[in-house]
TrEMBL record:
InterPro entries: ABC2_TM, Phage_infect_YhgE_C, Phage_infect_YhgE_N, Serralysin-like_metalloprot_C, T7SS_ABC-Transporter, xxxLxxG_rpt. It comes from Listeria monocytogenes. GO terms for cellular component: membrane. Residues 21-167, 686-900 form the ABC-2 type transporter transmembrane domain. The chain crosses the membrane at residues 726-745, 766-788, 794-816, 828-851, 879-900. Gene3D superfamilies: abc type-2 transporter like domain, Methyl-accepting chemotaxis protein. This is DUF3533 domain-containing protein. One of its GO terms (molecular function) is ABC-type transporter activity. Pfam families: ABC2_membrane_3. It is found in: Membrane. It is a multi-pass membrane protein. The keyword Transmembrane applies. Keywords: Membrane, Transmembrane, Transmembrane helix.
Length: 927
């Protein structure tokens, strides 16, 4: 203890050394206080950091409102105290940044608001808020400025978002109206869907009917295919019938010549008849005187009648043959008509547009039948006249007179009927069915007139029966023969014309109902024109043949009766005189009838060339008809093939219609679901519209949208400011510097007394270092508390400071004592290493791997941990205890090692191996 006291006595005696000792005690305090106070609260004074703001923004229109984000930002910054905002022009700001007057320049571009308004555009543009810093002026100032710029960005974003929110809520209000309209529209859709459902039911029913009908159509197509085969066979038959028609027309053309000759003969007979009538009328006056001659002539008449009676069987036989031929021709025509009907039935399916023409032909045919009936009546009249002639042949004069009147009546009626019928038929071209019916009625009226005329003429003949006498028998007989010949020719011509006309009529009917061949239609038109000229005479001739055949028995019977009655003619001669007088009174009518008969035969002869021309046209049309039928027959296979394709298509239609019907039912189910969904949609839209209307947005709402989050800072431990945060590091560093300076200044390797053992030397230096370390810790801690440092635990704070100071003191003393100045250098290097590796400024994860590697082995690491726990209580008691334990171990280890080092040095000194007292002597010579 003597050496310890002596150590402190010498310290107090050496005023320079004592002053140095005292000053050394304040070095940690000065270091810590000056450094910490300079950076005590820099973030609390950012309002003094000058920053320039340049506003180039131009206001724009956004949804009917003016958007001026730049001006709004400037207004907010003027009331912002976090930085020293200076609003300058671009040139002033750039120059201020260059001169170091401003730490940052914030530039608001001219399109700042414009870009903000582009949020709903196809390609929206971001709002670019640029800032420029000068890090060389002060990096911390740059960091603070950047934080301010980021905060500025957040404020701008919030403000713009608020504007967006206001615009969005305006649109939401509009969308509420749209929802209401959509709800109304959805209701209409629902109504439409209900109608669609009803329509779909109808469609489904009709599609089901279509599917069933398609099956029927399919069966019909198959039936059509079979029927069409029959039709093609009928076409072939029609073609054959066309050939027969052509042959019949040729026969008709051949019969025109005989008809022409017969008409000429008839004309000549009529002329002679007219001459005979003249003779008759002149002889009527001498009738009374010729009664006796009549008796004589009655004998000759009786002979003639016998001859006539013998000729009647021959006439009957010829008429029978003629009638049989007509029946054969009618049979052939029936076959042709059957083929024509088959052809017409097939063609009706191909050409429905010709229905009207068929009706007209049917009406025309009916008219021709009516005409034929009229001709039948006419022939009956002729046959009646012939019968009267046969009866009157009992007397020559009476028979010849009846024959002449009958022929005149036949010729007159035949000519009249032919002209009237031709006129009425020609009038039917291009007229309606009603008009044609009127024409038929007119023709019927004409025929009725002819019937009345026939009755009148028969009565006239009966009146003339008793008046004919005294005529030349031979001349009259010749005239009768010629008249019979003419009638026979007319009858033959009528038969030919009638047969050809029927064939032509049926051919025209087939051609009109054809498949549409232009050539066939032209031929049919020509054939029709020719038949119009031949129809009247043909019908009369055919009717005459039939009537003539039916009257043959009557003729035979009449001739027989005439022969039998000739015997009683003598008894009637007494009555003939009275009849002659009556006959004379009717001579005028007879003369007039003969004249009309002659005129009619002349007209008939004049019309024969026209009939011949029509027959030629008929033959040409028949040739065209035959060609058209052959062409139709040639095209029949194609038609059959097409019907086959139709049958295949109908099968596909049947399948498709069934699928379509099934799909329609599925569509009906879908429409039902869609209707239900539409109802729900209408309700939801209405609810949505009401919710939108109920939504009320205020400034609080807009602020909430603009800044929906609030940063809540919960401190696990509270650190007041930057000074408190940096204090653990600075306090540790200051104590280390104080210990380092102490071991630089104080003569620790010298002894206060010679000849003392090593442990006393160790205790003397240990006491000096202990007092200095504790004093440094107490002064530093106390003054820092006085300057504003607020530790969480005073005990832990001063305990940490004392243990840290002792650890540092004895560590550096160990190095300086053992290695002298090199040891002090090592202490300096250790200080530098601890500045980087102790983690006093930045978190260790932010430093390099080397510093993280040495971090656990540095004494300052544990000193900083302990100080942080004492100041903020954030490290935890375990960390504090561990840190204090490590520092205590370092201190104890260094104290122990210091004793060993000093013992070793003492031994060396005693062995004169080291000048222990002179190694720090001023200006001492180096060894």
């Amino acid at each position: 203890m003597d050496m310890v006291k002596n150590e402190w006595k010498k310290l107090f005696k050496n005023k320079i050394l004592l002053l140095s000792f005292v000053v050394i005690l304040f070095i940690p305090l000065l270091y810590a206080s000056f450094f910490l106070k300079s950076v005590w609260d820099p973030y609390g004074k950012t309002g003094d950091l000058p920053v320039a703001v340049v506003n180039n923004d131009k206001p724009v229109d956004y949804n009917g409102q003016t958007m001026d984000v730049g001006d709004q930002l400037v207004t907010k910054l003027k009331s912002n105290k976090e930085l020293d905002w200076n609003f300058l022009s671009k040139e002033e700001a750039e120059q201020g940044l260059k001169d170091g007057k401003y730490y940052m320049v914030v530039t608001i571009p001219k399109d700042f608001s414009k870009n903000a308004a582009s949020v709903l555009d196809k390609d929206p543009k971001k709002m670019e808020l640029s800032y420029k810093t000068n890090g060389s002026l002060n990096y911390l100032g740059q960091v603070v400025s950047e934080q301010g710029a980021k905060q500025l960005k957040s404020e701008v974003s919030a403000e713009v978002t608020k504007s967006y929110a206001e615009a969005i809520f305006d649109k939401i209000k509009e969308s509420g109206d749209g929802f209401a309209q959509a709800a109304d529209g959805s209701g209409k859709i629902k109504d439409g869907l209900v109608k669609s459902q009803e329509g779909n039911k109808t469609i489904s029913t009709n599609l089901k009917t279509l599917a069933d009908s398609s099956l029927t159509f399919k069966d019909g197509a198959n039936t059509l295919e079979v029927g069409l085969k029959t039709y093609t066979d009928g076409v072939n038959t029609a073609a054959a019938g066309g050939d027969k028609l052509n042959n019949g027309v040729s026969t008709l053309a051949a019969g025109v010549g005989p008809l022409k000759d017969g008409v000429a003969a008839l004309d000549g007979g009529a002329t002679k008849l007219a001459s005979g009538v003249s003779t008759y009328t002149s002889g009527v006056d001498t009738l009374a005187g010729g009664i006796n001659q009549a008796y004589t002539g009655s004998t000759a008449l009786s002979d003639g009648l016998n001859k006539m009676n013998g000729s009647v069987p021959t006439l009957a036989s010829g008429i029978t043959q003629l009638n049989n031929g007509q029946k054969s021709l009618a049979t052939g025509l029936d076959s042709l008509v059957d083929g024509s009907n088959k052809l017409s039935a097939g063609l009706k399916e191909l050409d429905g547009n010709l229905t009207d023409k068929q009706g007209k032909i049917a009406q025309l045919k009916q008219g021709m039948n009516d005409l034929q009936q009229g001709i039948d009546q006419l022939n009956q009249s002729v046959n009646g006249e012939d019968a009267a002639l046969a009866k009157q042949l009992a007397t020559l004069q009476k028979s010849l007179s009846d024959l002449q009147n009958g022929l005149t009546f036949i010729k007159s009626n035949a000519n009249f009927d032919a002209e009237a019928i031709k006129s009425k038929i020609n009038a039917t071209a291009g007229v309606s069915a009603e008009d044609k019916q009127k024409i038929i009625d007119a023709i019927q009226a004409d025929l009725d007139k002819e019937s009345q005329k026939s009755a009148t003429q028969v009565a006239t003949v009966e009146q003339l029966q008793s008046g004919l006498s005294g005529l030349d028998l031979a001349a009259i007989q010749t005239q009768v023969t010629e008249l019979q010949t003419g009638v026979a020719k007319i009858s033959a011509g009528y038969q030919a014309v009638h047969g050809g006309t029927n064939e032509a009529f049926n051919s025209i009917h087939q051609a009109i109902n054809g498949s549409g061949s232009q050539t066939l239609l032209g031929g049919a038109n020509q054939l029709t024109a020719g038949l119009k000229s031949a129809q009247a005479g043909n019908a009369k001739l055919v009717a005459g043949t039939n009537q003539l055949n039916s009257q043959v028995p009557t003729l035979t019977s009449g001739v027989g009766q005439l022969a039998a009655g000739s015997a009683s003619m003598e008894n009637g001669l007494s009555k003939l005189n009275d009849g002659g007088n009556k006959l004379a009174s009717n001579s005028g009518a007879l003369r007039s009838g003969a004249t009309e008969l002659q005129g009619g035969t002349n007209q008939l002869a004049a019309k024969v060339p026209t009939l011949a021309g029509g027959v030629n046209q008929l033959q040409a049309g028949s040739n065209q008809l035959a060609g058209g039928l052959n062409q139709l027959s040639a095209n029949s296979p194609k038609l059959v093939s097409g019907v086959g394709q139709l049958a295949d298509g109908s099968s596909k239609i049947a399948d498709g219609s069934s699928k379509l019907a099934n799909g329609s039912f599925q569509l009906g189910d879908g429409l039902t679901k869609l209707t239900d969904g539409s109802t729900e949609l209408t309700d939801k839209l209405a609810d949505g519209a009401q919710q939108v209307k109920d939504t009320k947005a205020t400034d609080k709402t807009f602020n909430m949208i603009a800044a929906p989050t609030k940063l809540a800072h919960n401190e696990y431990t509270h650190v007041s400011n930057y000074g408190h945060a940096l204090a653990p590091y600075v306090l540790s560093l200051a104590l280390y510097v104080g210990a380092l300076v102490f071991n630089f200044i104080m003569p620790i390797r010298r002894v206060s007394m010679e000849g003392q053992p090593a442990y006393k030397w160790w205790l003397s230096k240990l006491s000096l270092g202990f007092v200095a370390a504790v004093a440094m810790a107490l002064l530093e801690g106390g003054i820092m508390i006085a300057l504003g440092l607020r530790p969480d635990s005073i005990f832990e704070f001063f305990g940490t400071a004392i243990i840290t100071a002792l650890a540092y003191m004895f560590l550096i003393m160990l190095l300086a004592m053992t290695f002298d100045n090199p040891g002090r250098f090592i202490a300096m290097v250790l200080l530098i290493v601890q500045l980087a590796g102790s983690g006093g400024t930045f978190p260790m994860p932010l430093t390099g791997w080397f510093f993280n590697l040495i971090h656990p082995f540095l004494p300052m690491t544990y000193s900083i941990y302990a100080f942080r726990e004492s100041l903020a209580a954030g490290m935890g008691p375990n960390v504090y205890s561990m840190s204090m334990l490590v520092l205590t171990i370092i201190m104890i280890a260094c104290v122990g090692l210091l004793y060993l080092s000093m013992s070793h040095l003492k031994k060396r000194h005693d062995a004169h191996e080291s000048a222990l007292d002179d190694n720090q002597k001023l200006m001492a010579l180096e060894n």
